[in-house]
Amino acid sequence: MEYTIEPKSKFSLGIDELIQYRELFYFFTWRDIKVKYKQAALGILWAILQPLAMVIIFTLIFSKALKVETGEVPYPIYALSGLIIWNIFSAGLTSSANSMVNNANIIKKIYFPRLVIPISSILSVMIDFSITLVFYIGMLIYYQDVVIFSNLIWCLPLSILLMLITTFGLGTFVASLNVKYRDFQYLLPFFIQFMMFLNPILYNSNAIENPLIRTIMKYNPIANAINLNRAVFIHSPVDFQGLIVSFFIGIGILMLGIYTFRKTEDYFADIA
Fold first, then answer.
1. C-alpha angle 241/242/248, rounded to 5°?
2. Using the 8-state DSSP alphabet, how is residue 66 labeled?
């Protein structure tokens, strides 16, 4: 006799089932970390060295050469505040989008909640983030004259939450489509590169004069997550209207991602 295991709803995360298979989160997350830094002499220190190198390069280009205006905030800490949040999106989206294809052999052999795979891939990114976060806090202490530490308590967690919601939603959406249409693995790097310059990671969003682009950025979850993290700096107010709308947009992306994933997961084992 055969049984078909289906989620109760196409929009359901299946929390009960995910809790039942919670040990798999540890297994997949730890495996991804080990594979990523296998035979790397510096190991997980690359989580700090990579953003540090980018900050140095972008400081030389955008601050010294192009004279990008960041007000009273020194450019290195300004750039890092954007990069640390952006890296959650770029690394998380890349990892989760390719996660189903990379785990095709496991998917074909045994049953477990398929959502475990993209969630674990993002959890491995968050371990890298936690290492970078220590360096970021150290930079904030170094540049403490321009930092409002009371804002850090709520701005940083909300910023991370908004970016995680958006990343997981888009990641599950692309992961499900990538199983059937492998074109996405080639389009994704271009999309991420495009988004990097479209969002205020390396520049101040107030410098944009085009009204259409300003409106898009006002409600863009990625831009709002970055700007919210920068609310720890003096003279960096929070756009609460744009922030609230961007949370709803992020939740909409999440629901779309889960719906698409649930709708297509029945044939993952057949074509992965």
1. 95
2. S
Residues, the chain, total?
Answer: 272
184-198 and 75-97 helices, crossing angle to 10°: 160
Taking the C-alpha atoms of residue 177 and residue 100, their distance in angstroms, rounded to an integer, is 10
Confidence of residue 9 (pLDDT cuts 50, 70, 90): low
Neighbours of 105 (CB within 10 A): 8
Reduce the DSSP state of residue 147 to 3 states and report it: strand
- Residue partners of 109: CB distance under 8 A and separation at least 6: none
Would you state the structure tokens that stand for residue 189, as one six-digit string? 């790097």
* Residue % of the chain over a pLDDT of 90: 34
Q: Is the CA virtual torsion 151, 153, 154, 157 positive or negative?
A: positive
Query: Is 132 exposed, middle or buried (CB count within 10 Å of its CB: 0-12, 13-18, 19+)?
Result: buried
d(CA 54, CA 192): 16
At residue 18, what is the residue type?
L
pTM (two decimals): 0.87
Contacts of 147 (CB under 8 A, 6+ apart): 140, 141, 232, 233, 234
Instruction: State phi, psi for 214 to the nearest 5 degrees.
Output: -65, -40
- Domain residue ranges of the chain, discontinuous segments joined by +: 25-271
**8 Å CB contact between 99 and 118:** yes
DSSP string, 232-248: GBTT----HHHHHHHHH
